[in-house]
Design a protein that fits this description.
hydrolase; alpha/beta; 16% strand; single chain; AB_hydrolase_fold; AB_hydrolase_1; Alpha/beta hydrolase; eight-stranded mixed beta sheet
Length: 294
């Protein structure tokens, strides 16, 4: 089993960022943006796939998650600067990137704003912009996400009041109990894969994100319900878009919208996938596509 290395990296502005990585440091690098809420962390099967392809794989915790210093008021675009500073600190010149779920917009931010450093990017079951023209943002979401985003739209106080009661239901719980808590968000295909080693790893990544409170989760949601800070039309690097038709966390319509609005995207829309199935099953295909662009 390939070792995963965990450490803190201090950025030029003095903030700490939690990093989990695997693979040899001189290999082509993939930077991973996890979902919401998630700390730095990698699924072991994805690590083994990346290393077998001769890649270095790096995950970092966005501000406020785990041991990563909070950055109040951050935008989706803020992730590009953090990713650039992190790549510099890790000695990575050019890199590929992918993001799952709430990490998808942050991978797209890197594609739009760091084009000279990014060889390719992928959004997996990623949310679309709140102000996306022609998209009913909440339509098709499970009840929990409708309530969460509605609170985020109302502002920080309402969102904080919504999120705080959910923390005890996620911290210290077994995956089965967590799945029950998220039942409005899990379609049949997602229930089927949320078990065994995968569910245990997902649970740890989510629980680690809350060890310092709700701030990463809070700030992610607030960033999603305001302008992202960049234009998708400005993207000039190769981008792959994945979306499952049976996704109750990020509706299929979000993937369709991104497919039509990210220039020249390689689009993978699937009638069989939900949300978690894209994460557990499709990453090797994403790695193969990203690796082909180095």
């Amino acid at each position: 089993m390939t070792e995963q290395r965990k450490r803190l990296v201090t950025l030029p502005d003095g903030r700490d960022v939690e990093v989990v990585e695997a693979g040899e440091e001189n290999r082509p690098a993939i930077l991973v943006h996890n979902g919401t809420p998630s700390a730095a962390g990698l699924i072991q099967e994805h690590v083994e796939d990346a290393v077998a392809r001769g890649l270095r794989i790096v995950s970092y915790g966005r501000p406020g998650y785990g041991q990563s210093t909070r950055q109040p008021g951050r935008s989706v675009a803020s992730a590009a600067k953090d990713t650039l500073d992190l790549a510099d600190a890790l000695g990575i010149e050019r890199f590929a990137t992918w993001g799952i779920s709430g990490g998808g917009p942050h991978a797209l931010a890197c594609a739009a704003l760091l084009g000279h450093r990014v060889v390719a990017a992928a959004s997996l079951a990623g949310v679309a912009p709140i102000d996306a023209e022609g998209l009913a943002f909440l339509a098709g979401m499970g009840e929990d996400n409708v309530e969460e985003f509605t609170a985020a739209i109302q502002g920080e106080d309402a969102l904080r009041a919504y999120l705080e009661p959910h923390v005890p239901a996620l911290l210290g719980q077994e995956p089965k109990a967590m799945a029950e808590h998220m039942r409005t968000l899990l379609s049949g295909p997602d229930v089927a894969v949320f078990r065994g080693a995968f569910s245990e790893q997902v649970a740890k990544i989510m629980q680690d994100s809350l060890t310092s409170g709700i701030y990463g989760w809070l700030d992610d949601d607030l960033a999603f319900v305001k302008p992202w800070g960049f234009s998708l039309s400005s993207i000039q690097v190769p981008v792959q878009i994945w979306q499952g038709e049976q996704d109750l966390m990020v509706p299929f319509s979000h993937g369709e919208w991104l497919a039509h609005n990210v220039p020249d995207a390689d689009v993978r829309l699937s009638s069989d996938d939900g949300h978690l199935t894209v994460w557990v099953n499709r990453v090797p295909e994403v790695h193969a596509w990203l690796a082909s662009h180095f």
